Amino acid sequence: MDITNKVAVVAGATRGAGRAMAVKLGETGAVVYVTGRTTREEQSPMERKETIEESAELVTKAGGTGIPVKVDHTKEEEVQRLFHKIEEEQGGKLDILVNDIWGGDPLTEWGRDIAEHNLTKGLQLLNQAVQAHIITAHYAVPLMKKNRSGLIVEITDGTDDKYRGSFYYSLAKISNIHMAEAMAEDLKAFGITAVSLTPGFLRSEAMLEHFGVTEENWKEGAEVDPHFIASESPAYIGEALKHLVLDPDTARFNGQALSTWGLSDMYGFKDADGTQPHWGRYFEKYVKE
Fold it and tell me: If you write DSSP's letter for every residue of 148-201 in order, what string do you get?
């Protein structure tokens, strides 16, 4: 199915899962607004080399139309300008919002409780991973309500409300899941579907660098962390999103917490290397205490 002329926003698409999801939407022929803080002229506090322009070019190369827009989603006025731009350029049309704003890795202090964790970093993490998602949805939803249709995808970590090993990290990721559930209930009368979507052990650019490997020899990273053998590339969550978007009955998932491995079981898609990683099954067998 071709969804040419569908209009999407992938908020936080500079790299990793966000970039991959934007590119996979590009494969469907969609117009994709690619947002993030790092451009070819200005680098974000993440200090990464990837840029929104590169992501947008990859979307266009894949068959869609990539439009880079520099946005700090914690700043309401910048988010407001983004959706005003979309309203003007696309005639008020917005079909898909992917909320993938994060940047919380350098802010998370693992192994520290609420009293020990740096408070400033913790609150900044919540600002980026929860409040920024709320601001973005606040300005995106009116466009969807006008057209009485739309898909909102909250990117998270996990499918339940269990503790994730760090107070602020856990609070953020569980909040993303509940945001989708709450929006699903609030917006169903407008034909808008909201879900959350989690990857498994994501083999992002930063993670590859952390383990000192590349996508070509990534399995060597399992020598550092044995669980890395069950990791998945960003393309996997990209495929999950693409299949979700192309499903003519996506509304049946409204409010649900979805996963790459669960959708792979359902749709039969594979990762870039032809495998079907199943973090859920692996976690239950080898990680869960």
Answer: T-EEEEEE-S-SS----SSHHHHHHHHHHHHHHHHHHHHHGGGTEEEEEEE-SS
For residue 197, the cross-strand partners are 155, 258
Measured distance CA(54)–CA(194) in Å, rounded: 28
Cα–Cα distance measured from residue 160 to residue 117, given in angstroms and rounded to the nearest whole number? 23
Assigned domain for 178 exists: yes
Distance of CA 39 to the CA centre of its chain: 19
Inside any domain, residue 211: no
C-alpha triplet 165, 213, 241: angle, nearest 5°: 60
Q: Which range marks the domain in which residue 259 is found?
A: 7-203+233-284
CA distances from 119 to 44, 102, 112, 126, 167 (A): 21, 17, 11, 11, 11
How many distinct structural domains can be found in the chain?
A: 1
Structure tokens at 56: 């947008």
What would you report as the CA-atom Rg of the chain, rounded to the nearest whole angstrom? 18
User: Which two three-digit tokens encode residue 280?
Assistant: 């859920």
In a domain, 227, yes or no: no
pLDDT over 60 (residue 77): yes
In a domain, 198, yes or no: yes
Residue 33's nearest CA partner among 94, 80, 104 is 94
- Return left, alpha or beta for 135; rule: phi > 0 is left, psi -120 to 50 is alpha, else beta: alpha
Record the pTM: 0.96
Q: What pLDDT, in 10s, does the model give residues 142-170?
A: 999 999 999 999 999 999 999 999 999 99
Are the C-beta atoms of residues 171 and 124 closer than 8 Å to each other? no
Residue 230 C-alpha from the chain's centroid:
20
Whether the per-residue pLDDT at 289 is higher than 80: the answer is no
Count the neighbouring beta carbons within 10 Å of the beta carbon of residue 120. Answer: 9
